[in-house]
Specification:
The structure holds two protein chains of two kinds.
Chain A: H1 3-23, H2 25-28, H3 30-51, E1 53-54, E2 57-58, H4 59-89, H5 93-97, H6 103-129, H7 140-164, H8 170-188, H9 197-203, H10 207-220, H11 227-251
Antiparallel strand pairs in A: 1-2
Chain B: E1 3-13, E2 19-29, E3 33-37, H1 44-51, E4 59-64, E5 67-68, H2 73-79, E6 80-83, H3 95-105, H4 110-123, H5 139-151, E7 157-161, H6 169-184, E8 188-192, H7 196-202, E9 205-210, E10 213-219, H8 220-225, E11 229-236, E12 251-255, E13 258-264, H9 270-278, E14 283-288, H10 292-300
Parallel strand pairs in B: 3-8, 3-9, 6-7, 7-8
Antiparallel strand pairs in B: 1-2, 1-4, 4-5, 9-10, 11-13, 11-14, 12-13
Helix pairs in contact in B: 3-4, 3-5, 4-5
The chains are: A mainly alpha, B alpha/beta.
The structure holds adenosine-5'-triphosphate and magnesium ion.
Amino acid sequence: MTPKQKLVAFKTILIKEVLRFSRIWVQTIVPPVVTTSLYFVIFGSLIGPRIGDMGGFRYMDYIVPGLIMMAVITNSYANVVSSFYGSKFHHHIEEMLVSPLPNYIIVMGFTAGGIARGMSVGMAVTLVSMAFSDLQVHDLTVLVTIVILTSTLFSLAGLINGVFARSFDDISIVPTFVLTPLTYLGGVFYTIQMLPAFWQKVSMANPILYMVDTFRFGFLGVSDIPVALSYLIVGGFILTLYLYALYLMNVGYGIRK
Amino acid sequence: MTTALSIRDLTKAYANGFQALKGISLEIRKGDFFALLGPNGAGKSTTIGILCSLINKTSGKVEIFGHDIDRDFSAAKMETGLVPQEFNFNVFEPVEEIVVNQAGYFGIERRVGVRRAERYLKQLGLWEKRRCQARELSGGMKRRLMIARALVHEPRLLILDEPTAGVDIEIRRSMWDYLRELNAAGTTIILTTHYLEEAENLCRNIAIIDHGRLIENSSMKELIGKLQVETFVLDLRNPVKTLPKTEPECLRMIDETTLEADIQRGCSINFLFEQLSRQGIEVLSMRNKTNRLEQLFMHMIGNGADGKRKDAA
Ligand SMILES: Nc1ncnc2c1ncn2[C@@H]1O[C@H](COP(=O)(O)OP(=O)(O)OP(=O)(O)O)[C@@H](O)[C@H]1O
Ligand SMILES: [Mg+2]
């Protein structure tokens, strides 16, 4: 395939993925907006004022970046894992397998679809959040890059989950038992400064902490962790997951008998 | 170069250890219309799956128009179109999108893909259904959708795994005409089917596999020529009480107005009519008992005349 043909093929997968989640927007875009709005109402408006300040900011303003990030993470992941597993389950992954598509284009196509979903949901949630808080943007470049990188990372993770999944149950295990706890403990609702020294250390092993913290820095201009370190860690994860996903595709794990 | 497909010593052991292919070698010439036959579970779909890299082979070598499927992956793919045995499209996607997307996976720009989708959907009688979700199509329409999808990148080798399963007679005949036209225009076609009449009608060359081994590979003419005895069914105008005598003896009585005649290959059939006329027996019509290829086939895969499989006991 020529580079131009590869680009066409990549765009085909991406557009197909975007159409897929747009067609079922009531299941893909609306739920995260509803859930996040509930968080805004309960933690921000109702309980927030009693909590007072967090890290020197109104509680509402403190949690909004984390909540947006949480929506981006879960939706990027969910998009790729369900799309990829679905295409395996209904066998239409074979449409790609009989074509000359190189495996890395398949990986990149599905990942790009996950990023598109993550960004769409992220935008929708951000719009809603503007009704609850008047956040200012401190550093737009950091904001945009970290959210795209995070979305990339979890799209790749979702792809790997989709490759391994053998049933529809398998695609909800990781979100339930890994993603949600890591996100809750990733400093969405509190600053790790509040934790005892030991638990601060433990928290540092949680990659989501870095992403949430850096994203919040993009809004508030303060962070618990050096921003450069975050980029390094997120970049490292993306590279590792990408190579692993590519390896799985190359050996045909779960897709080529 | 005159070879479209070359398979050397192909073997496949599935993950559960089952040896589905035990060393298959096959050459198919450019422009051929080739039948790949065999009973259920023989290994036809496994072979085809390997050609299209849906299945990883255990060992052996496959070349498509001289492109090794391992080393020259992308070139081999560009030449090959597959109509699989099982439906494998997204049933929620609109018909037209399925075909256009497939073009996209082959690097064909959307503009061109849309034009080609129109051409092939029209040729296969699906244009009116282009906006329907694939799940709204009937079984026969779904098969035709898979043919349109397989053609959209205009491959030189088209592989069809039981394309006429569940297709009504009229559509089947039009599908045959369509495939003949494609073949006449230069596309090499490989076809599997359990309708042996179909294979005899369409295909010039044939391979039969059974239990993962190639048991026959020749031209259709040669193979049919191997048939030693042909059985005909005679319908009589008036009932007969006893079996009419003939010289040589070749008749069996099925019921009062139906006889079966076994005729040796190369023998004239005139003697039979002469002798029956002399006895005042009038034959209304005559037909082959089974399709000729079917008779051979049953013989080769180890079925006795009683139609029971020896290995099934
Ligand atoms: N994924 C698999 N794992 C283990 N064995 C398999 C697998 N797929 C097929 N087989 C076995 O391999 C053998 C060949 O199967 P294949 O699908 O190639 O047969 P076929 O000739 O296409 O038959 P049919 O006419 O029924 O379509 C069968 O015995 C089948 O049970
Ligand atoms: Mg089969």
